Amino acid sequence: MRFNVGTKIGFGFGIVVLLLLIVFSVTYSVVSNAKQTLERSIESNDKFLTVDQPSLFEINHLKDNLSETHNYMQKWCNDQSRSDEQYKIKASVLLDETLINDLRILDTLSDKWSSTQIGKTTYDLISNSIFDLIDMYNFSIREQLVDFESYDDPTATFISKSALELEVMPLLQDVSSQIDDLIEIRSNIAKKQQKDSNQSFKSTNYKFSRLSKAIFFVGIILLIGTFIIAFFTTLSITKPVQRLKRILINLGSGVFPSHEIEPSNDEIGEMSVAMNTLVKGLKETTQFAHEVGQSNFKYPYQPLSDDDVLGHALLKMKDELAETERILEQKVKERTEEVVRQKDEIDNQKSKLEELYTDVTDSIRYAKRLQDSILPPDRYIKKLFPSSFVLFKPKDIVSGDFYWVHNIKDEMIFASVDCTGHGVPGAFMSLVGANGLKSAVTEHSLAQTGPILDDLNKYASESLNKTGDENAIRDGMDISICSLNRKKNKIQFSGAYNPLYLIRDNELQIFKTDKFAIGSFDPGTKNYQTFTLDVKKGDVIYLFSDGYADQFGGLKGKKFMYRQFKETLLAISHEPMETQKVLLDQKIEAWRGSLDQIDDILVMGVKV
Question: Model-level pTM greater than 0.70?
């Protein structure tokens, strides 16, 4: 007789369901009986915890605060002292806040005193009396004895002491007696409530104890029955399925079972037979694939049936691999010859590129020596401006930014210049700019900053053949130039786009310049303005190009921006000038991080 898997599982679940119905019936009968008792117990206990017990605590707290208040007020009345004495401050807090807060809390709790009307009536009398006491304390003592001098007033002291003895003391004794009566009333109510709650919990505990015993015995029966059912289910269903599962998992990892499965007389047995057949076929297929992989294309292989798609596909693959191997051997031979030829050609090109790179690099480094020659030496800068710094960081070997310093009698001129582009193109422009400034000052004897820039614009246009040519490329320069006269404590400055920053008394002032670049217009069509400004000792002047503020970096890879540049200058302006240079360099390097420098960086600082 065949006893299939569905019948086995259905029979086992039927027994388990029957046992569960028995447990449910017993549990329901006991729980329904104990439900009402438990609800009453919970309600009684909740009232004790939320009303009775807090009420008793707050009444005692009110009594203590009232007693403490009276002690302070007696001392206030009898001891001559200032208004800022600590006990007077505490007494004021008790009268103005603490006692009123206590009564407010008790008002809320007394609304829930439904067990007796006597307690509520007593509390109402106490509340009214305490407000009367507060008024007496305030009028008779606090308002009479306001400060140290008020104790010298006989009328004030007489009013305070007589009120304390004749009015306050009798009322306080009456209130204290009423509070004691109320404490006794609420204490008895709380004890009764707690007793009722304990009795309810005991009754509920007894009923649930009966339930526990009933469930225990029925649970033993359920446990034994379930164990027996699980044991037979494991033997007949679970264990064979687990065996099949292990084999499938191992097959998924490419591991074959060591022996065949013995089939049983049910659906699992049929799956076991199919699994044995599958494993055998996979072993033969694996061996065939191994032999083909070793180029043994004559190894015999027979598909499982005419419908074995995998087997026929493997036979076709064997024939195609044999032909592919023959073709590949021929192609490898041809490609090897081609690769050898290409390698020789690449080596030759690499050698030429390395030679060309060396020549270009040497030329650029020589150009840097030429560019360095136009920059004023550090000793010359320090001679004119002892308290100064120049932060100069070219993007490439050579730079489109440069700085310039010169002295004409009492005028000490310094400039920060940003030429179009960077690298080699910018370096060529910087040579034009440096020669133009030198020509304007030394050859044309110009001392004012505006005319110097006008002359530089003319020089740049003539040098680059821009004059009169509408199609010429408008390469140019952004510049800020400043002339300092220490005897007159004045500076004159001009600029093309680039402003001048001045920090005085930890406040940064910005002086904007003209908005047209050197070389961007025909000479004579526009003129640069000369601005004059009074300075004083301790002022710090900053000239700069846009490379510092435009540098990308930070956590999000954004520009440094002029706002942060201004904040940085303000933060370091009190430091020595050489220290400022180091701090500015450290700041921009930390901001840049691993990102490339995008432009030349130039910042000049001069302290008056």
Answer: no
